[in-house]
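Quarterly update from the structural biology core.
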Amino acid sequence: MHNLVDLHYVVAAVVFSLIGLVVFAAAFLLLEVLTPKVAVWKEIVEKQNMALAVFLGSFALGIAFIIGSAIHG
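Predicted structure, tokenized:
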């Protein structure tokens, strides 16, 4: 019987997704360490710092593209 989805590919996708999430979280933690004087959540939510929100969104997309490219090969 032929499986529609090979289990090997599913496991590989889950493993690479977990690795990508760990690297993504590590990148945000590194950003927090490198900017100790900025309370990111407070700046965005309470002070409504749009520039910081746009920067963090761009940072997230950039890291996601890098991780996706690295995983895809």
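The mean pLDDT is 88.
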